[in-house]
Amino acid sequence: MNIATPDLTRPRKGFSACPHDCPSTCALEVDIGADGRIGRVHGAKANDYTDGVICAKVARYAERLYHPDRLLKPMKRKGAKGAGSWSDISWDDALDEIAEAFVKAEAAHGAEAVWPYFYAGTMGLVQRDSIERLRHAKRYSGFFGTICVNPAWTGVMMGLGRLTGVDPREMAKSDCIVIWGTNAVSTQVNVMTHAIKARKERGAKIVAIDVYDTPTMKQADVKLILKPGTDAALACAAMHVAFRDGYADRAYLAKYTDDPAGLEMHLATRTPEWAAAITGLTVDDIEDFARLVGTTTRTFFRLGYGFTRSRNGTVSMHAALSLPTVLGSWQHEGGGAFHTNSDIFGMTTGLIKGAGYADPSVRSLDQSQIGRVLTGDPEALRNGPPVTAMLIQNTNPVNIAPEQRLVRKGFARQDLFVAVHEQFLTETAEMADIVLPATMFVEHDDIYRGGGQSHILLGPKLVEPPETVRTNLFVIEELAKRLGVAYKAGFGMSERDLIATVLRPGELEQLDGEKWIDRKIPFEEAHFLNGFGHADGKFHFRPDWTGQKASTRPPETVGILGPAARLPEFPDYCAVIEETDEAHPFRLVTSPARNFLNSSFAETKTSREKEGRPEVMINPQDADRLGVASGDIVRLGNTRGDLRLHARVTAEARIGVLIAEGLWPNKAHLDGEGVNVLTGADCVAPYGGAGLHDNKVWLVKA
Questions:
Q1: Which of 100, 197, 206, 273 is at a distance of 20 to 30 A from 367, taking alpha carbons?
Q2: Percentage above 70 pLDDT, the chain
């Protein structure tokens, strides 16, 4: 059991920020008892984005911090990989063995044989990104992160030219809020806070657009349930109606966009009837939606990460952003669109990441293709050496990565050394050679920025960790010493020293007192009234799909990805998704569950109890045809693999669409394999990504 070092003074309240991979980055107030243990976690009421509201899973964070299964000591594998046999090892010996394995891998195959692998288990800039400093210092293989933002952010950049948008707090001043591609009730509760406020105070209409009847749909006034991957068709039909019926703001278009005449001509055949055949909506649904947003000046489009999980997600995001542009919604308070504010913060992370000694000629490997990389696929390896040593922090690829059978096969290699620094014995940690116990966010210092809002938030150490547990930064620093690069810039600095380097002078002291800094940009900039982010100041209806600058653009060693030649000249439905066929009559979407966050919280008792068990949602008409009832075991599969799940027959799923909410551990499933055996790692055009919600499958009663 994890018992924090007692604080014998008095109960108190600490301030922090949620570290998890969610755009809200909630400002937190943490109850701390006289015994030095945390209690309930609350949303900070004084923060006008968090507004006192957080999700239930973070509110009960003490359940995770003091979980009896938390890792508390370094361990070394005994016996076969994944067999679950471990021996204790000291921190010094564990770090020595990791360094020796890295040196051995480099001697045999070159530095690129070592692949430091990480992601967003924490969004803190110090504890997450310091692994990059070690990578660059040693010229280890690069990490091209593709599992989350790429298609959505690329689509934003194609249209807007920068990753900013209307302040999400303006939703409270909107008359119509379109929540598109995100189940905000389950995954980003603060969006609903501001949307519900607008409905209560202004009578605003809430529109939800998604691929099944989510909890957010149940809060909406209008719900549009699309076939997966068809969002762009709805956007194009709504723009067609806007031009046809006079809702398009032609003066705005002439001033702020690149080719409105070409767009109007292109959309002439993108009628509601055309879109209905693609989306599965009725013509009336599409006409009514187009009329609502076309006649409501203050319409706010809140565009989520559902776009990023589809093979045509980049095109869909660009098309959805084109709709408020045709309507001229950006001109009005409470109008316009928002996806992320990632470009507003002005935080310089170069020293944390060791950017000064990064070598662009070193190969970068695709995060999503870890299965292909570890099983020796030449293309995935960029025709370079095999990966024979890894350090993994902040991610659980044996559970969350696509093409799971390849992933597990790769991790089972006897010539692959893996060290995992983790909080629990995840399924990735179970396949490791060395496991190191990691701190949680209230046990170390870090700095956070809220891409779904505009605050920079300090996350100071609030309680003492168990004495045998270490921070991510500690591991990186100790390995740097053993590997001979600790003299390089950025090493040897404390968390607070590194935090100070990403802020402006005096801001760390400001954060100590004020807890957060609002980087809100001026109204004219947020609404692009001074021009969009491209050199010509225009919104681009005609994207440069392969030439656009973007933080998601692959390194030169990777190049343009996916079927980029098939991307359309103007906003359009792009049929590069995994379409159903006779052998695979269903589309499968692997959406997030309310009580999990990626694979985090899947270990806590309350989250597991609330979710029940892994299930697949199937429409009653499909179930009747197949003779399936709720509770029956069904088998679903495709060319990548197959697995068994319990069926839940519900009208929340569309006909022909299956929903498997998660992410459950693989071992929670009937056959020990999770839903990602069915997901693919082929690249999303043009800048990469993984179509995790874009799968064709068959289903039979088991």
A1: 100
A2: 99
